[in-house]
Automatic annotation (TrEMBL):
This is EamA family transporter. Pfam families: EamA (PF00892). The chain crosses the membrane at residues 7-29, 35-56, 68-88, 94-114, 121-139, 145-165, 177-197, 209-230, 237-257, 263-282. InterPro entries: AA-Vitamin_Transporters, EamA_dom, EmrE-like. Belongs to the EamA transporter family.
Amino acid sequence: MDTASRGWLNGFIGVLIFSGSLPATRVAVADFDPVFLTAARATIAGLVALAVLVLLRAPRPSRAQAGPLAIVAAGVVIGFPLLTALALRHVTSAHSIVFIALLPLSTAAFGVLRGGERPRAAFWIFSVLGSLCVIGFAAGQGLRAAPVGDLLMLGAILVCGLGYAEGARLSRTLGGWQVICWALVLSLPPMLALAAWRVPASFASVGAAAWAGLGYVSLFSMLIGFVFWYRGLAQGGIAAVGQLQLLQPLFGLALAAGLLREAVSPAMLAVTVAVIGCVAGARRFSRPR
């Protein structure tokens, strides 16, 4: 398997892990304050990341890498989790799928701006078509107008795309797992303080589902998923592998169907096939001539 293929495989594993993030967040914010949830997940993941860095004796980042790490931390450790947690107080998980479908375009755009990548024009055509497929499917499910939630999700997509692209660029020199671990450690002091400040007076009303949601977003969404994702982006290209995110909303729906025993409609299957085709097309034209 060549480097590009390994990149697509690692990226695919990362997307599978991320697919449970919004449903888990939706469950968690039912019992947790969104700000506390954001701080708690970053704190838990940061403590685990610190232990990993110490045990493996990872070298410290250089001074030149500190700035990019701060961008990663601001985008994927703080910005995206906080904005989505706040948004999911106003919109449903199904509604948020509309915006997740725009994440590949955001990642690709920042990959061009920050990573210097130049995919062919056909790549952008397949990218837009894939996004439109998912947006059209989600819109067809019936979405309610929620301006505050929509604005929060749009902001989340922008900061996440920047964090993905910056982290992937940094992974080429620092390493994928080191990038997310150091970004989490960089965020640990303020997130620990924020968690202590916003900690609830009592956890008696917090159900098992909310605790499970917190555990998932802390360990899988915040740490393990990024190990595969950043490695995949660095190996296969930010713009190219980023298109795998088009599958994330559909994986999320499939996960809900499997766990909640919801019916899988023919429309969902049709959109899945169409999006897979767009991802395949984007992969073919991901590299410049």
